[in-house]
Model the fold of this input.
Amino acid sequence: MESIQLNAMAKINLGLDVLRKREDGYHEVRMIMQTVHIYDKIQLTRKKEPGIFLTSSLRFLPVNEGNLAYRAAQLLMEEFQIKEGLDINLQKNIPVAAGMAGGSTDAAAVLIGVNKLFALGLSDSELMTRGVKLGADVPYCVMGGTALAEGIGEQLTRLPDMPDCYILVVKPAINVSTKFVYENLGVNDLPSEAHADIDGQLQALEQGNLSALCDAMENILQTVTEPAHPIIGELKTAMKKNGACNAMMSGSGPTVFGLFDREEIAKAAYWEMRKDHPEAQIHLTRPCAGTEWIEQEA
Ligand code: ATP
Done:
C-alpha cells in the first residue's frame, strides 16, 4: 500500500465535570464524549526520501513538531525505525482551538494510518497507550463513539450510542485559551451544585432518552468562559430560542452546540444562526457511533 486517506472526526462533550485539581497540577475530569460527523481529511503517502513532510490547508498551522499529526507519525516511525519517508496532507475542516479535539483527532488518525500503511500490527489499545503521550484526548479519538472519559481524560469506558439527533455547532470568532480556563476554575472551591450531572447523563444514555440527556447537559468550564466571553451565553440562548432541546459549550470552548430532535427545526435554526452570526463557523451535523477512519487505500 502506497497511500491511505482517513477522515478524522471531531468530538463534542455532552457533559463535562472537573472533580478536583491534583497535587501535580492536572485536573481530574469526568466527561461524556461524543464523535460528530465533522472531519478533517488526512492523506498519508509513503515516499523513498526519509523524513516527515506535512502540508495543511490552513497556512497558520505548524508543519513541524508543533503539529500533533506530525508528532503522531514521528512517534511510531521512531519506535519502529522506519527508514522511509511520509507525506502528510491535512485538509482542515474542524474549527481550530475550538474545544472539538481537532489536533487530537488528527493525531489519532495518523496513528491509525501509519500503523496500517507500514503494517506495524498494533491493536487499537496499543495505539491508545501511545496516543496518551501526545495528548489526553488522543486515546478517546482512537476509540470514537460515545464514551465516559475519566482521570485526565484517558480512562475510557464505552457507553451506549447517543440517541440519534441533529447537532448544530457554532464556533464564534473568538479565541479562548484552555490554560486561562483551567487556571481560573478554582474547582476545589466551587459549590456542589456547580458540578455537571454526569450520572444523570449516564442513566439517560442507558435508557436511550434524548430529552433526559439534554436536561442533564452541563459543562463546569462555562463558569469561567461565560462571564469572560458573553457571546457564549448569547449563542446558547439563541439556540434554545430557535428550538434546541438544550445548548452547551464544548470542552474549554468557545464552540457552542445545540441538540435538536427534529430535522426541520434544526435546519431552520442553522439558517437563523448563519444570518445572525456571519463571522462564526457553523455546521449542522449528526452523532457518529464510532470512527469511520479509512476512506480510501491505494
Ligand atoms: P481540545 O478540544 O482537545 O482542547 P481544541 O479543539 O481546543 O482541542 P485544536 O484544534 O486541537 O484545539 O488546536 C489547539 C492548538 O493546537 C492550535 O492553536 C494549533 O496551533 C495547535 N495544533 C497542532 N496540531 C494541530 C492540528 N493538526 N490541527 C489543529 N491544531 C493543531
